[in-house]
Amino acid sequence: MKIAVAIKQVPLRDSLLRVNAAGTWIEEGNLGFEINEPDAYALEEALQLREKHGGEVIVISAGPARVSQTIREALAKGADRGIHIDVATIDTLHIANLLAAALKTEAPDLILTGLQSDDLGYGQTGVVLAELLGLPSSTIIMQIELQPGKVRVKRELEDGWFQHIEMPLPAVLTIQSGLNKLRYATLMGIKKAKTKEIKVITLDGAAEVPPASVVIEKIYAPEKNKQGQIFDGDPKAAAAKLVEKLRFEARVL
Amino acid sequence: MSVLAIVEQRMAGEVLAAAQQFGTSLGIGVKAYSIDLPYTADAYTAAVEELIRNVNPSLVVFGHTYQTRDYAPKLAARFGRVLVSDIIAGKPPVFVRQMFQGKFNADVRLAGDGPHFVSIQAGAWRAEGSPQVETFSPSSTTSRQVAEPPFREAARAVDLTAADIIVSVGRGIKEKENLPVVEALAQALGAELAASRPICDSGWLPMDRQVGSSGQTVSPKVYIAVGISGAIQHLVGMKGAKTVVAINKDPDAPIFEVAHYGIVGDLFEVVPALVEELKKTK
Questions:
Q1: Structural domain tally of chain B?
Q2: Which H or E run includes B194?
Q3: How do residues A64-111 score in pLDDT, each as one tens digit?
Q4: Closest-CA distance of chain B to residue A80, Å
Q5: Which ipTM was obtained for this model?
Q6: Less CB within 10 Å around the terminal CB: N or C of chain A?
Q7: Within a domain: residue A8?
Q8: Does B233 lie at the interface with A, CB-CB under 8 angstroms?
Q9: Which residue among A118, A127, A163 places its CB closest to the CB of B147?
């Protein structure tokens, strides 16, 4: 069983984000980065499937040079090798095309990725990847059961409903956070990761770049339109104020 | 040229209203279809592809449902396009969508020829009237996915929908060992304890205490969100609360947008102070 996991590097969860001078993206200068959370669950699921069924886990990520650190961390958790597509674009279709080209030669039995990214949040790279590779896909997956030549998954629907879907392998699945328990990298894992292979694919401007069908014109903080009463400063004073408001203004206590 | 609305039961009225608005701004008509097939990703991708080739729309509008998320990106890719997903406002060719978990909005512009593809966020457009929806039956259907009937897990042990007061906890609590901090608040208020998804994902609280799009939808008298940033998936589950209180250290957290009252501060200082205050004046 050869499993590929497509991961994305995103700003650290608690980062203080600022819009860049051009107003078209965030200021990345002083930010730390980490694996996109749903992708971490996809990686964990791949590692657990390998432990159960044997085989190999390959992590693949597209992004600038800094992405190699996140790939290295995935290797430290137990992935066998990495592929880094060194590219600056954030266009979904372009990224998916690059991932598809790299994965075609790998021909994995199963491709996993998180259901959406914490930055752009389009929630479609995995599904588009399946289309480009001509593979069946299913999304928002909570459970994976491998059977000979096929996979049976539990897919999340709205309002606490679920559905089982079966499809032939190879297939692409997008993973919902929380379907497993994430592991930490061990010291031994971190040591081993240093000797694992990360294949770097550079584009040298030779590859054809499809024109983007969607362009980010501007990003900005959402307008504040709610007139809530917000207290700050001394916690005790703020707490007293809030209780008073809830009792005598909202009259809900 | 037309705007094509793809209608499923969920969000039908909202999708039609948005499509109508986009059609008006483009000066073209709207055609609305529901797909006469049991859902699988393959079957719907092929069916809507056929429909698009028949109708030749310049814009295709979906509701941002779990079903849309499952196949519309694939369909858009088939036309060399990216689905502009989960839009909250705008009209062609510029739409507004949230990025970075709701911390920012982005204006995104459609480039190149149609068809373009957008999905609208639940609650962003108001459903209006009862327009005509036609049914489309594709000429043939094949699917690699085989779908079993939807099901619900065993009955929920906790019914949050009946609670008058809910204290809900999010990532800000940092560790499972810190839960007693919010439990004390729930106890002081006689409230049910709930949580945002990451807390249940981590197994710190059982899944049936989750509020949000994949959990329970609640409308208590008071909803106190502690250390919850307010991602849209959470907000849809609690927007109906009569009074929303937010406690968060980040003054820019989206939860303050829906809060009637809020405290910006460290929950580990604010929550114990609240508990003390409640006990004092009882």
A1: 2
A2: strand B192-195
A3: 999 999 999 999 999 999 999 999 888 999 999 999 999 999 999 999
A4: 26
A5: 0.90
A6: N
A7: yes
A8: no
A9: A163
